[in-house]
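Technical appendix A lists one of the benchmark inputs used to test multi-chain prediction within the project. The record comprises two sequence entries:
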Amino acid sequence: MKPQVQSITSFSNPKVKWVSSLKEKRSRDEEKKFFIEGYREIFKAIKGGSDSSVPTLPVRLHSLFISPDCFLGENESKLIGSVTCPIFELPKKIFEKISYRDRPDGLIAVAETPNANYDWDLFPALNLNPVLIIEGVEKPGNLGTILRTAEGAGVGLVLVTDPRIDLFNPNVIRASTGTLFTLPTYISSLSETIVNLRKQNYSIHAVTPEGKSLYSNTDFRKKSAFLFGSEQYGLTPSAKEESDDTLYLPMFGEADSLNLAMSCGIVLYESLRQRNTGS
Amino acid sequence: MKPQVQSITSFSNPKVKWVSSLKEKRSRDEEKKFFIEGYREIFKAIKGGSDSSVPTLPVRLHSLFISPDCFLGENESKLIGSVTCPIFELPKKIFEKISYRDRPDGLIAVAETPNANYDWDLFPALNLNPVLIIEGVEKPGNLGTILRTAEGAGVGLVLVTDPRIDLFNPNVIRASTGTLFTLPTYISSLSETIVNLRKQNYSIHAVTPEGKSLYSNTDFRKKSAFLFGSEQYGLTPSAKEESDDTLYLPMFGEADSLNLAMSCGIVLYESLRQRNTGS
């Protein structure tokens, strides 16, 4: 049944405050909801993943907030027509208040926060290459950029271990351009991740400035998992010890030339190059 | 002669307003000065480049603003002792007002804006490999990240053609972590750039999603120049026509998986891999 569109006309409508509050972790935890802004991001949240053996995060929309005055494209009505959750229409001025963006595009969804813990029993991830492990990531924007790049490089599964951030932080979703919903991305402990990947004959490559082997001299055609540490602290000692090898990227100039997301992208594209060319 | 440190104790001191104003392009243009914040960035501005045949941008400090209460490290006094320009000391509260950062580290320099136009007669750039050309870049932070990564990948010279931003925007400097001052970075027109590089037997590789050749199947061991377009508009038609070839990066998922800086980093590190391994 097509949901009816309800109008919100006042700044003091409690829904306005409620949606805005979901930008904060405390409210997301209390409400078990999160905030998805933007056509592209909501589109991907509805679409989900496609051809992976591991499902993407199960996202169920709770409500949709729209402001047709802000629409930028031509496909908004199709997207709105495809949802079954309650829809609220807001004038531009009120929408701008709940928006997270400088130039909102008139679409904000609230979704039920899914369980993001990886279930190793259900999804052993046998045929995915490569797998990406991100340990202790601190900046939501970095994780988002990593997800976006990982999808481009054909990563099959991303495991976020011991994150210092909330996976459903609006900045993760924004920087990922919605890839959080189309690339299988889960939380797992590092020890469980390593044990399970090793059981399945993955080589676990830790990438760190103190690595011992040149990344591009390493064979990534076999089942590979790449392990990256946090922006500030790098990899934990146990992460380095538990890996099969440690890899470095060559670097001219100062040692801080590459940020975390850039290092990820370079290594992931080298692995794609090797898989594509067979050498 | 060691400069004397002058104290600023009032918010209404005209220097406070003046330094702050340099965050805006109009003031930078009027004053012919720009704003460098942070120990690392000022250190690199003083140090400049080292072993390149092309000099880095000539930076001359005009004045230094310090707030010892904000210092984070142990080398600030050495840096302060090395400058010959006037030095002004501010209490933390006033310094925070002129700072561009959330957590200022107590050091802001004002420098004379150098002429950033590349002089092809003086510096023919004969033995640099690779050269990086960035056309029409729109976001200061992206240019900064590109410079930082380019230095890591051993780029010899960066030419920014037809930029839509000011090279001395504080966000360029910040995202570059000061690499703007240690890696030769200049402005040039695209046509002059292409003519001059071709004279010197550079292959000019345009990188674009509509490229015809796979980037990693291309030989980058010869003298190579990489040409990247703007975030929103990509390469201009003439940039594509004037290049020797057009290269693409393979991409799974959506077509927008890689941002400009990430594409740059991946291609530059592939060129470094080829130069290092000879294949």
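Residues 55 and 184 of chain B are 6 Å apart (CA to CA). Residues 131-277 of chain B form a domain with the Alpha/beta knot fold (CATH 3.40.1280.10). Comparable benchmark entries are summarised in Table A2.
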